[in-house]
């Protein structure tokens, strides 16, 4: 796998193989019904008064947006340009109050290019066994402050997204069992 990494820092966690396998176990990347994730993104956009909010899942080469406010025409992007790739590297929030002041972002096309990203905050979507599968993030084209209360609020939104992901997996399991019992 060759990723065009625009950050100049690693975006591949040490547990990458297991992390991606765990992500695929949820079968969320193929889903069409993303209602709960869309609602979480809409809530984040509203609460933080930002033009863009996303619930993302970071696969081996692409980042998929299952909740998307402000970039609805974009369903996925290359992993090497998505700031969500940075958020899976940490257990806590990733915050860039002014992206133009962050050396690792200066060559990123979302920051240096026409898109004009200036603010980014994300909390990883972490499984009960510690795998970061993606993030709930908020984006603005203006620098912003982001305090501890903001971080706590975004952390709760990420927990809601993980609860929804677990419900999704349970639904798939139940449907599979029902199909198996019908086939007998």
Write the layout of secondary structure elements.
Blueprint: H1 16-25, H2 35-48, E1 52-58, E2 62-69, E3 76-78, H3 84-87, E4 94-96, H4 109-112, E5 119-126, E6 132-140, H5 148-183
Antiparallel strand pairs: 1-2, 1-6, 2-3, 4-5, 5-6
Helix pairs in contact: 2-5
Description:
The protein contains 5 helices and 6 strands; from the N terminus they run H-H-E-E-E-H-E-H-E-E-H. By secondary structure, the chain is an alpha+beta fold. Strand 1 and strand 2 form a beta hairpin. Helix 2 packs antiparallel against helix 5. The protein is globular and about 60 Å long. The model has no long low-confidence stretch (mean pLDDT 93).
Give a quick summary of the entry.
The protein is an alpha+beta fold and 184 residues long.
- Strand line-up of the largest beta sheet: 3-2-1-6-5-4
Specify the overall morphology.
globular
Distance linking N and C termini: 41 Å
In terms of per-residue confidence, which ranges show pLDDT below 50 for 5 or more consecutive residues? none
Mean pLDDT: 93
Question: What structural class do you assign from the helix and strand content?
Answer: alpha+beta
Per DSSP, the total helix count is: 5
Number of strands: 6
- Percent range for helical residues? 25-40%
- Percentage of residues in DSSP E strands: 15-25%
- Helix-strand pattern: HHEEEHEHEEH
> Sheet with the most strands?
6 strands, antiparallel
Radius of gyration: 16 Å
């Amino acid at each position: 796998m060759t990723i065009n990494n625009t950050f100049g820092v690693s975006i591949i966690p040490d547990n990458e193989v297991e992390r991606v396998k765990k992500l695929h176990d949820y079968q969320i990347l193929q889903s069409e019904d993303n209602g709960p994730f869309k609602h979480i993104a809409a809530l984040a956009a509203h609460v933080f008064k930002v033009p863009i909010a996303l619930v993302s899942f970071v696969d081996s080469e692409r980042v998929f947006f299952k909740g998307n406010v402000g970039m609805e025409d974009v369903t996925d992007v290359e992993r090497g340009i998505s700031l969500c790739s940075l958020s899976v590297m940490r257990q806590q929030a990733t915050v860039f109050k002014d992206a133009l002041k962050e050396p690792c972002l200066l060559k990123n096309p979302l920051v240096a290019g026409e898109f004009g990203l200036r603010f980014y905050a994300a909390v990883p979507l972490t499984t009960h066994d510690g795998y970061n599968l993606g993030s709930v993030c908020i984006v603005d084209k203006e620098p912003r402050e982001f305090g501890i209360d903001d971080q706590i609020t975004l952390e709760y939104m990420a927990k809601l997204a993980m609860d929804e992901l677990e419900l999704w997996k349970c639904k798939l399991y139940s449907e599979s069992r029902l199909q198996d019992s019908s086939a007998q």
